[in-house]
């Protein structure tokens, strides 16, 4: 049988059947990759390939960065840092229309700088901000959307698990990708704030004005953000100046967050063990996804589909940005039907070479893919952050939460368009590193 | 029989998960100690190798427990639309495929570990044996297999759809 036809059957029929059987995405990719390789080469070769890939991926030094940054995020989650960040932001902007929602985005931005997971960011800030917004009679269409969307900053702002996975899968520098994510995350935050301001201008009942605080109180709240900024500067600064490898930066981040958590007396033994348990589960899930994608990628390489897709797309008489728009649309739709990270690792073997064939800068392209992947976390029906908010605000109808993110999805798409028009926003900081 | 197997599976998975947790803490301590010693004296030799092996243990030993807790991401919006009986059948097929796959993967990894042991292959920097870590990954695969076996038996014998 024609290798391309085998590949298409593998992707469109076998993989989709396994997905819809409910098989975890990582396992399904590994099984299809194994079966496809078996058919194309031989059973023995497929078996050897699986054994080698499982061992090589699990023991890859580069991947050890994942559990460390995830642990850092979970320690921060249990440390009370989020509350102090929120209180500071609230003191500064709480008296604006929609001020509590803006404070949530501000605190999200800072918390994202020490936590690499959008779910953890949404859960942490939601637990702190949703009761406050309810107390001040914020409309759930604003409050739930703010919390769900603010969590996505955790994926773009370094350290980010999604960026690490993209870096490892595409063999790009994680340091440069981390640095490339800083300004886009700030841009996204600004656009979210503008969205809140516009919404509250049109519908003042969405975000009633909160109590005003004195200048002394504002200044007095600043130490609340210092620990998060200090950890971020140490970790990302260490990477920027070449003092640490990403793995070392993760370990230093864990150590510092642990010390801050101990000093704040918020870290109980139970919270510590929970952090370890959640870290192991998430890291294992990511490792399985990456391993599955690598095994699946071997099969795709044998079928030559990624190269043929790239050749076909480059031969089309359309500008590269039309192809880019098409790719981003696929990610947007893909993120609606399956887990965003799962969809990303599944499609990178096809779409990353395609972008490179079009001459896109790999760091810029990686960040654009990260940003579109984050949208998957807030697009129904499988957007994980929506369910995090639902769990935190059980009284709010899931339909209202779905609607609430729609304003912010527009802001996210605008930020992606801005980055496509001005790629320098992504590339300026990585360009400073040799 | 199924409940005995399940108890054994839970015990073994929790045990391995505990080892994974201790290994994770070890990774943090080893890296921080290395940075400290590098600043004041000399770096620890072979940290790169140890971190890779420890990372392998962390993942392999957490495989089964993560599956027990349904921590691996999947698409369940289609399966959830079916009746409990159909869900049971679909889950059963799913568990069977995964069980066979990880049995094969674990077996082949163990065979490869044995080859490394017999040929006396050692790491590049520290010149130490590393086949025990390969066996560790094979063990993780077999324990994951056991989780799928228990889930499959639950579907077949007890006609029970495991919680998702």
- Termini separation of chain B comes to 23 Å
- Rough outline of chain B: elongated
Oligomer: heterodimer
**Largest interface, Cβ cutoff 8 Å:** A-B, 58 and 54 residues
Name the structural class of chain A. mainly alpha
What proportion strand of chain A? under 5%
Query: Based on DSSP secondary structure assignment, what is the total number of beta strands of chain A?
Result: 0
User: How many alpha or pi helices of chain B?
Assistant: 4
The fraction of residues in strands of chain B falls at under 5%
As a percent range, the share of helical residues of chain B equals over 70%
Mass-distribution shape of chain A:
globular
| pLDDT < 50 runs, ≥5 residues of chain A | none
Category from helices, strands and their pairing of chain B = mainly alpha
Largest sheet of chain A: none
| Spatial separation of the terminal alpha carbons of chain A | 48 Å
Radius of gyration of chain A (Å): 22 Å
Uncertain stretches of 5 or more adjacent residues of chain B: none
Structure, described:
The complex is a heterodimer of chains A (434) and B (164). By secondary structure, chain A is an all-alpha fold. Chain A has helices spanning 3-20, 25-40, 43-58, 65-77, 81-93, 99-112, 118-135, 140-150, 153-156, 161-170, 174-202, 215-221, 223-240, 246-263, 269-303, 305-315, 320-337, 340-357, 362-375, 384-392, 398-404, 406-421, 424-427. The mean pLDDT of chain A is 87. In chain B, 76% of the residues lie in helices and 0% in strands. Chain B contains 4 helices and no strands. Chain B has helices at 2-40, 47-68, 84-119, 131-157. In chain B, α1 (2-40) packs antiparallel against α2, α1 packs antiparallel against α4 and α2 runs parallel beside α4 (131-157). The radius of gyration of chain B is 20 Å and the shape is elongated. Chain B starts with a helix and ends in a 7-residue tail after the last helix. The mean pLDDT of chain B is 90. The chains are: A mainly alpha (434), B mainly alpha (164). The interface between A and B is large, with 58 and 54 residues.
